[in-house]
Amino acid sequence: MDRSTYGWGGVSTGTPAYTFAPTSVRDLKQIFSSGEHKSFLGRGLGRSYGDCALNTDGALIDCRFLNRLLSFDPETGILKCEAGVSILNVNRLLSTTGWMLPVVPGTQWVTIGGAIANDVHGKNHVQEGCFGAHLIALKLARSNGEVFDCSLESNNELFAATIGGLGLTGLILSAKLQLRRIQSLTMKARRIPFDQLSTLFSLADEHFEAWEYHSVWLDPATGCRKGHYIMANHSQRQGNLTWPAKRRIRFGVMAGFPSDLPGRLVMKTGNLWYRRGIRSGAQETTADAVLYPLDRLPDWNALFGKPGFFQHQSVLPTAVAESALDELLSVIETSGQRVLLAVGKWFGPRSSPGLMSFPVPGFSIALDLANHGTKTHKLLDTLDGVVADCGGKLYPAKDARMSPTLFTSGYPKLEQFTQQHDPLFASDFWRRMEQSG
Amino acid sequence: MKRPIKAALVFGATSAIATAYCRILASRGAVLHLVGRDHDALQNLAGDLDLRGATKVSVAVADLCDTEQHKKLVTEGWESLGEPDLALLAHATLGSQSEGETDWKQQRTLIQTNLISPLSLLTLLANRFEQQHSGCLAAISSVAGDRGRPSNYIYGATKAGLSCYLGGLQHRLAATGVRVLDLRLGPVDTPMTAGLSKGLLWSTPERVAHAMDGKLARHHGTVYLPAYWRPIMGVVRVLPDILVQRLGI
Ligand SMILES: Cc1cc2nc3c(=O)[nH]c(=O)nc-3n(C[C@H](O)[C@H](O)[C@H](O)COP(=O)(O)OP(=O)(O)OC[C@H]3O[C@@H](n4cnc5c(N)ncnc54)[C@H](O)[C@@H]3O)c2cc1C
Ligand SMILES: NC(=O)c1ccc[n+]([C@@H]2O[C@H](COP(=O)([O-])OP(=O)(O)OC[C@H]3O[C@@H](n4cnc5c(N)ncnc54)[C@H](OP(=O)(O)O)[C@@H]3O)[C@@H](O)[C@H]2O)c1
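^ inputs. structure came back:
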């Protein structure tokens, strides 16, 4: 099956009229000028859960082969690379030089272009902000054939709109990024179990100063009211810098399986393993284990087969985060549906140049839910209500069904953004937001 | 003769498969001379290979359908590499079978790119390698050439011609110490196949390049990559006609 017709969650589908994989600007200009296509959209590794990387009936520009590193300066840590380079390859190739991307999402199978277009965040948002905060410049191709060099200094409006711009401002060709120094790939991590939400929030207050990475695992078996608080720091001692090459278990063949049962079972086992695996107190671990715990099973989404699954990721503003989280969990409890996986992160005040960036200071909760049709849609709508009422917002990278109203209320710079929109770029997500939006 | 590949001349270097293979060579510090038709893409690739550890990377820009230029391109290759251990031909185009059936111009482009151009280059390269008494001459062919099938016989015919030529060359050069390889690939997820539905038997440029690497250092003759294509094509070649028609493969 062709993965470029699915979102990562498997729920959103959309077959493009044409798929094209450029390896040069010349290739791109050719398709832009052919006049044969009614719309264009870039696509990276398809790790967005919903429909932001789908372009039904339009031209999909598969960027995976624009994957060359252009230059790297081991003195300054400045990397120039094409947009289809994956975070995995940056890790593999550059960690040995003692440099790493300062902000990474929870999987390495993400392209630099995709990371910019969703202005991704990591577990260290409080300290480092979004991906866009470390982006020095980017090169963007527009459908009229023009190519722009964008940065805070030049074409800054296009720069700001492209960061978090959901691929709608044109095609990102390459990027210039500031990496951060690391002494080794060893990390010190600490897990603290908590048995009520209020403890979770006080733990955060207590530990923000001393630790860089913060994440939360909520135990679905307890209605997500208990869980583990996980903190980590880079080790300051010199040590191993070779990125591990791991054997991974692959499930790609399960895509299209009629049931999501294998997925639900694996999630259950995962949660169980997590609950048992508790070791509090500081322990030595590795960067890949802290940053990309799900990458051990690279295509785990295929286990959800045809039905697929949803992820509802919201950010709840700091002042109301605890009560809003409590309400979200109560709504789920009342619905009788079970969360498959629940993880949380904190967002700090560091702003991104991106007009459409998702993070605002607060607590961000990602809830994975099996797709039970109307019942699940209803539940998700109710969750949206809670998010809207508390002044929160949803993450388009994870969304397959939010309403245009919620989108508009969450992204106040939408109008400013629309002015930079390339008229021929569109996605299924965008068309959905434009409906009655 | 078996010796590691330290200097390679690559035609169609910006192809996904050639790029993946060049990266393996670069990580071992090889010297590379890349030929392709897009200057910027070649420059970017040269930068990438340089970062990955290549000792030296030079590039030449040419439309490889222009056979007039081949002599110059080959000479330049020898000038920048000294005595190359490998010349790899990776350029080709897939075209559209259904359009090609009624469009001779498209068929002709396919024949020019996938057959005439490589044969012209192979002629020159074979003679250079023969004088050198060493080296490896390899071209990427396809399982599509193993049997004429309704789904891709135009492309298949060009690859069948290429494979046949390589087979002959291999025997001609057998006694000279020059190895000739016919790399017969199954379907790979690359720009050439963008938009095609990918099944279980599909491979990736990285996996194919890794397998190629194992073969190019010592083998000669026809190699199927990934290796499971040898038995599969063994069966496809002897399938009764009626089945080929029914399956529409
Ligand atoms: C297991 C898992 C964990 C994750 N964890 C996190 C996390 O912790 N934090 C987080 O922020 N996100 C997270 N994500 C989401 C992921 O980081 C984003 O969806 C990211 O954008 C995916 O990148 P991609 O290369 O797969 O792009 P795609 O999903 O293919 O595309 C994403 C968007 O980028 C656009 N795009 C892609 N390439 C280009 C280009 N060259 N030019 C212009 N536009 C382009 C597309 O049009 C689309 O709008 C996670 C996803 C998974 C599967
Ligand atoms: N992908 C498969 O499923 C598959 C299967 C079997 C065999 N193969 C063979 O593998 C080889 C590599 O292909 P690929 O899959 O890696 O596809 P690819 O990335 O599309 O590579 C094809 C390359 O050929 C180049 N090319 C085409 N016409 C040219 C010309 N006139 N002059 C110079 N260069 C030209 C292209 O250059 P531009 O980038 O400038 O267009 C491109 O770099 C090909 O021989 C192909 O037939 C592929």
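The pocket of flavin-adenine dinucleotide (ligand 1) is lined by residues A 8, 41-48, 52-53, 63, 83, 105-107, 110-111, 113-115, 117-118, 120-122, 166-167, 171-172, 294, 397, 427 (CB under 6 Å). Chain A touches chain B at residues 1-4, 16, 18-27, 60, 62, 65, 68-72, 82, 93, 253 (CB under 8 Å).
thumbs up if we can close this ticket
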